[in-house]
Description:
- By secondary structure, the chain is α/β, with parallel strands linked by helices.
- The protein is 15% helix and 17% strand.
- The mean pLDDT is 85.
Amino acid sequence: MRxxxxxxxxxxxxxxxxxxxxxxxxxxxxxxxxxNGDLIEAADKAGFDVFVTDHIRFTxxxxxx
Length: 65
């Protein structure tokens, strides 16, 4: 099971496609006020395995652990 973080811009309707995983949106773990690289860094530190966004330019900053 993976811990998945949805950025606030991701449609809630796709949550069902991540069955078997723990899915949270940015506001749920208190990350709503963060943006860009700060959000990705906080998600990494919080133990999320996957970050889902529709802002493709931020995706390359996520490092493989």
